[in-house]
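Entry 14. Structure prediction run on the chain below.
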Amino acid sequence: MTAPVEIRPRLWTAEDLLALGEAERYELVDGRLIPMPPTGLSHGYTEARVAWILGSYLREHPAGILVTGEVGFVLRRDPDTVRAADVAFIRAERLPPEGLPTGFFEGAPDLAVEILSPTDRYADLLYKVSQWLEAGTRQVWVVDPARRTVTIFQPDGTLRLLHESDELDGGDVLPGFRYPVRALFEGAF
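Output returned:
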Protein backbone atom coordinates (compact mmCIF):
# COMPACT_ATOMS: atom_id res chain seq x y z
CA MET A 1 0.00 0.00 0.00
CA THR A 2 1.39 3.38 -0.94
CA ALA A 3 1.28 6.41 1.28
CA PRO A 4 -1.19 9.12 0.29
CA VAL A 5 0.34 12.01 -1.58
CA GLU A 6 -0.27 15.42 -0.07
CA ILE A 7 -1.06 18.00 -2.71
CA ARG A 8 -0.28 21.51 -1.56
CA PRO A 9 -1.64 24.58 -3.29
CA ARG A 10 0.89 26.56 -5.27
CA LEU A 11 2.55 29.36 -3.33
CA TRP A 12 2.87 32.50 -5.41
CA THR A 13 5.72 34.99 -5.16
CA ALA A 14 5.68 38.75 -5.46
CA GLU A 15 7.26 38.34 -8.90
CA ASP A 16 4.48 35.93 -9.98
CA LEU A 17 1.89 38.46 -8.84
CA LEU A 18 3.61 41.30 -10.70
CA ALA A 19 3.72 39.17 -13.88
CA LEU A 20 -0.09 38.83 -13.80
CA GLY A 21 -0.30 42.48 -14.76
CA GLU A 22 -2.97 44.91 -13.75
CA ALA A 23 -5.87 43.32 -15.63
CA GLU A 24 -6.71 41.18 -12.60
CA ARG A 25 -6.31 42.62 -9.12
CA TYR A 26 -5.04 40.52 -6.25
CA GLU A 27 -3.14 40.84 -3.02
CA LEU A 28 -0.82 38.08 -1.87
CA VAL A 29 -1.00 36.70 1.67
CA ASP A 30 1.47 34.01 2.67
CA GLY A 31 1.89 33.03 -0.98
CA ARG A 32 -1.85 32.78 -1.68
CA LEU A 33 -3.77 35.01 -4.06
CA ILE A 34 -6.56 37.09 -2.53
CA PRO A 35 -8.96 38.61 -5.12
CA MET A 36 -9.56 42.37 -4.92
CA PRO A 37 -12.86 43.21 -6.62
CA PRO A 38 -13.45 46.76 -7.87
CA THR A 39 -14.65 49.24 -5.28
CA GLY A 40 -17.90 51.18 -5.24
CA LEU A 41 -18.32 54.86 -6.02
CA SER A 42 -18.46 56.02 -2.38
CA HIS A 43 -15.22 54.15 -1.64
CA GLY A 44 -13.50 55.69 -4.66
CA TYR A 45 -14.71 59.17 -3.77
CA THR A 46 -13.45 58.84 -0.17
CA GLU A 47 -10.11 57.50 -1.41
CA ALA A 48 -9.72 60.45 -3.79
CA ARG A 49 -10.71 62.90 -1.06
CA VAL A 50 -8.14 61.49 1.41
CA ALA A 51 -5.46 61.61 -1.31
CA TRP A 52 -6.37 65.20 -2.18
CA ILE A 53 -6.25 66.31 1.48
CA LEU A 54 -2.91 64.59 2.14
CA GLY A 55 -1.54 65.80 -1.20
CA SER A 56 -2.41 69.39 -0.27
CA TYR A 57 -0.48 68.98 2.99
CA LEU A 58 2.52 67.45 1.19
CA ARG A 59 2.70 70.32 -1.31
CA GLU A 60 3.34 72.61 1.65
CA HIS A 61 5.47 70.09 3.59
CA PRO A 62 7.35 67.93 1.04
CA ALA A 63 8.35 64.98 3.18
CA GLY A 64 7.89 62.08 0.77
CA ILE A 65 5.46 60.68 -1.76
CA LEU A 66 1.81 59.77 -1.70
CA VAL A 67 0.54 56.85 -3.78
CA THR A 68 -2.94 55.60 -4.64
CA GLY A 69 -4.37 52.98 -6.96
CA GLU A 70 -3.63 49.93 -4.82
CA VAL A 71 0.19 50.07 -5.11
CA GLY A 72 1.76 46.79 -3.98
CA PHE A 73 4.06 46.68 -0.94
CA VAL A 74 6.12 43.53 -0.29
CA LEU A 75 5.67 43.05 3.44
CA ARG A 76 7.29 39.63 3.76
CA ARG A 77 9.22 37.04 1.76
CA ASP A 78 9.10 33.23 1.71
CA PRO A 79 6.17 32.90 1.64
CA ASP A 80 5.55 36.29 0.10
CA THR A 81 2.96 38.78 1.28
CA VAL A 82 2.12 41.75 -0.94
CA ARG A 83 -0.52 44.12 0.32
CA ALA A 84 -2.05 47.23 -1.26
CA ALA A 85 -3.41 50.27 0.56
CA ASP A 86 -6.05 52.63 -0.78
CA VAL A 87 -3.67 55.52 -0.03
CA ALA A 88 -0.09 55.27 1.24
CA PHE A 89 2.72 57.64 2.19
CA ILE A 90 6.45 56.87 2.04
CA ARG A 91 9.04 59.21 3.60
CA ALA A 92 11.55 60.66 1.12
CA GLU A 93 14.59 59.14 2.84
CA ARG A 94 13.16 55.64 2.32
CA LEU A 95 12.81 56.03 -1.44
CA PRO A 96 15.44 54.29 -3.60
CA PRO A 97 18.11 56.78 -4.77
CA GLU A 98 17.98 55.30 -8.29
CA GLY A 99 14.33 56.30 -8.64
CA LEU A 100 10.93 54.76 -8.13
CA PRO A 101 10.70 51.07 -9.01
CA THR A 102 8.28 49.99 -11.73
CA GLY A 103 7.35 46.99 -9.59
CA PHE A 104 6.27 46.69 -5.98
CA PHE A 105 7.87 48.64 -3.13
CA GLU A 106 10.05 46.42 -0.94
CA GLY A 107 8.83 47.18 2.56
CA ALA A 108 5.90 48.86 4.23
CA PRO A 109 4.72 52.44 3.76
CA ASP A 110 5.04 54.85 6.67
CA LEU A 111 1.27 55.50 6.52
CA ALA A 112 -1.35 53.15 5.10
CA VAL A 113 -4.93 54.35 4.67
CA GLU A 114 -7.69 51.77 4.27
CA ILE A 115 -11.19 52.84 3.27
CA LEU A 116 -13.81 50.50 4.75
CA SER A 117 -16.26 49.21 2.14
CA PRO A 118 -19.72 47.81 2.97
CA THR A 119 -18.57 44.36 1.83
CA ASP A 120 -15.35 44.32 3.90
CA ARG A 121 -15.22 41.83 6.73
CA TYR A 122 -13.86 43.63 9.78
CA ALA A 123 -11.82 40.61 10.91
CA ASP A 124 -10.05 40.55 7.53
CA LEU A 125 -9.39 44.27 7.75
CA LEU A 126 -7.93 43.95 11.26
CA TYR A 127 -5.65 41.16 10.02
CA LYS A 128 -4.46 43.41 7.20
CA VAL A 129 -3.88 46.27 9.68
CA SER A 130 -1.78 43.93 11.83
CA GLN A 131 0.28 42.93 8.78
CA TRP A 132 0.95 46.59 7.95
CA LEU A 133 2.07 47.32 11.51
CA GLU A 134 4.21 44.17 11.86
CA ALA A 135 5.98 45.07 8.61
CA GLY A 136 6.91 48.55 9.87
CA THR A 137 4.05 50.87 8.96
CA ARG A 138 4.05 53.65 11.55
CA GLN A 139 0.32 54.47 11.33
CA VAL A 140 -2.70 52.86 9.72
CA TRP A 141 -5.85 54.91 9.25
CA VAL A 142 -9.10 53.03 8.72
CA VAL A 143 -11.66 55.42 7.28
CA ASP A 144 -15.29 54.35 7.66
CA PRO A 145 -17.54 56.49 5.43
CA ALA A 146 -20.74 54.84 6.69
CA ARG A 147 -20.03 55.68 10.34
CA ARG A 148 -18.04 58.82 9.47
CA THR A 149 -15.14 57.77 11.68
CA VAL A 150 -11.40 57.29 11.37
CA THR A 151 -9.53 54.76 13.50
CA ILE A 152 -5.78 55.30 13.89
CA PHE A 153 -3.76 52.16 14.63
CA GLN A 154 -0.16 52.38 15.91
CA PRO A 155 2.61 49.76 16.23
CA ASP A 156 2.52 49.85 20.05
CA GLY A 157 -1.02 48.44 19.94
CA THR A 158 -2.81 51.68 20.70
CA LEU A 159 -5.68 52.89 18.62
CA ARG A 160 -7.77 56.02 18.57
CA LEU A 161 -11.32 56.14 17.26
CA LEU A 162 -12.08 59.59 15.89
CA HIS A 163 -15.61 60.85 15.35
CA GLU A 164 -16.86 63.83 13.36
CA SER A 165 -16.20 66.24 16.24
CA ASP A 166 -12.52 65.16 16.42
CA GLU A 167 -9.46 66.23 14.48
CA LEU A 168 -7.25 63.85 12.51
CA ASP A 169 -3.53 64.45 12.97
CA GLY A 170 -0.44 62.97 11.36
CA GLY A 171 1.50 62.39 14.56
CA ASP A 172 5.22 61.85 13.96
CA VAL A 173 4.50 60.44 10.47
CA LEU A 174 3.15 63.73 9.07
CA PRO A 175 4.14 66.37 11.66
CA GLY A 176 1.80 69.33 11.70
CA PHE A 177 -0.94 67.66 9.65
CA ARG A 178 -4.34 68.35 11.17
CA TYR A 179 -7.74 68.01 9.54
CA PRO A 180 -11.29 67.96 10.95
CA VAL A 181 -12.84 64.50 10.62
CA ARG A 182 -16.19 66.10 9.76
CA ALA A 183 -14.64 67.91 6.77
CA LEU A 184 -13.20 64.64 5.49
CA PHE A 185 -16.74 63.44 4.73
CA GLU A 186 -18.27 66.72 3.56
CA GLY A 187 -18.39 68.74 0.39
CA ALA A 188 -16.50 68.50 -2.83
CA PHE A 189 -12.90 69.01 -3.67
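The chain is about 25% helix and 30% strand.
Filed with the rest of this week's runs.
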